[in-house]
Design a protein that fits this description.
single chain; alpha/beta; Arc Repressor Mutant, subunit A; Nucleotidyltransferase, domain 5; five-stranded mixed β-sheet; 14 helices; 16 strands; binds zinc ion
């Protein structure tokens, strides 16, 4: 048989392989007949494409569907063992690395605190050391490693793998892609933390099959991943989604934002604003268990500690979260009015206090958005909570692997 394909035929074949693989990924378990129906490809084409995916170990058969009417059909799903993926999240004050299977299930992970004031080279080296441990783990599992995803706060040029500007890190023009590719010999993908988290939510989380949703990444800053019309919206230069720097109203907790401006939304609703709200309450000597917790744990005022106080019923902690939740909700309302999303998803470090923030976010959204639009928007917590961007780093590699098959060339 002549197996040589023309360039056009090869392109069509790869496009169709990707189409079928993505469909199996999002709809599994699914039969060949259902794939044909949903893609519009004819049955023999689907059969041949599925054979190729089976041969590459990307999908596998998981038995007959005996529940439905008609002849039982062999069902397909994506093979979680298709390869390992390494993800690294470079946060403002921590570094987190994980190895997952192809379906985003965590097999190994490590997290280290990082000092925001350490120099760039030191923090990159710290990350590199943990990534090398991850690679070693992957080799022990004797599986191909498909790539390394790296997420960071700030604007990113994804084609060059360069962090353009991270206000909260005070970093500019860092060529992460080049540095990590040279050191690891892996395909490296660099992406903004919130954008990556949105892709993760679409591939593995609460937004599977959702075509219009916004991911709100909350922590030291607030970033947005705008997933519109079934894909990530990047804007002209790829910097879209800097929702935290949307200028809004003045109120007593106004501070200068790390971007240099005043009145940015994130300064009312980020991690630091919550700490400030608690500090202001403690200064007027309201009764609170927070000072006692800090002394017992020899700890500064942190979000996990405030959350612990809230869990114990501390009014000052609960009220501080509530206030920040209302401020967060005001931004959510504006975004809902503009984008009419099906879902608004809150993730990132602050989502550990989601149970205190969410009811207030919802209340503010009711107050500040157009009812016809907001009634349709579901406001939920990320499936991955504070790990949203770490799983995002995994997701950007998997997303590319579902489109291009260069990853599966070698074992
Ligand atoms: Zn700002």
């Amino acid at each position: 048989m002549n197996t040589k394909l023309t360039a056009d035929q090869a392109f069509v074949r790869e496009t169709n392989l990707s189409l079928v693989l993505r469909l199996i990924h999002s709809q599994a378990p699914i039969s060949r007949a259902q794939v044909a129906l949903m893609t519009g490809l004819n049955k023999s084409t689907v059969s041949s494409l599925v054979d190729e995916l089976l041969a590459k170990n990307l999908v596998h058969e998981i038995g007959n569907n005996i529940g439905g009417a008609g002849r039982p059909a062999m069902m397909l799903e994506v093979n979680a063992q298709a390869g390992n993926v390494i993800g690294a999240e470079l946060g403002v004050d921590f570094v987190s690395v994980a190895v997952t299977d192809f379906m985003g299930n965590i097999l190994w992970r490590k997290r280290e605190e990082a000092d925001t004031n350490v120099n760039q080279v030191k923090m990159i080296n710290q990350t590199l050391q943990i990534v090398k441990e991850a690679i070693k783990f992957g080799k022990k599992k004797n599986q191909r490693t498909l790539g390394l995803g790296l997420t960071t706060p700030g604007t990113v040029n994804i084609n060059e793998g360069v962090l353009i500007f991270a206000p909260n890190l005070h970093w500019r023009n860092v060529p992460f892609g080049k540095i990590f590719a040279e050191q690891t010999k892996l395909p490296v993908y660099v992406e903004n933390d919130a954008n990556a988290a949105a892709v993760a939510e679409h591939l593995f989380g609460t937004a599977r099959q959702v075509q219009d949703f916004l991911f709100v990444f909350s922590g030291v800053g607030i970033g947005g991943g705008l997933f519109l019309n079934g894909k990530l919206y990047r804007g002209k230069n790829g910097y879209a989604g800097e929702i935290g720097h949307f200028p809004i109203m003045a109120e007593p907790y106004q501070t200068v934002c790390h971007c240099g401006n005043r009145g940015c939304w994130e300064t009312y609703a980020n991690q630091y604003s919550i700490i400030q709200r608690v500090q202001a309450r403690l200064e007027v000597k309201r009764s609170s268990i927070i000072p006692k917790l800090m002394a017992e744990q020899n700890s500064g005022l942190t979000i996990p500690l405030i959350k612990q106080a809230a869990d114990a019923g501390d009014k000052e902690a609960i009220d501080s979260f509530a206030e920040a939740g209302l401020a967060m909700g005001q931004g959510f309302a504006g975004l809902i009015n503009i984008f009419n999303p099906k879902k608004m998803i809150l993730g990132g470090p602050l989502s550990i206090a989601g149970e205190y923030l969410l009811p207030n976010i919802i209340q503010a959204v009711k107050r500040h958005s157009m009812p016809e639009i907001s009634q349709q928007a579901e406001i939920v917590l990320s499936k991955f909570g504070p790990d949203a961007s770490l799983i995002g780093a995994i997701a950007i590699v998997v997303d590319d692997a579902l489109t291009r098959f260069i990853h599966f060339g070698k074992k």
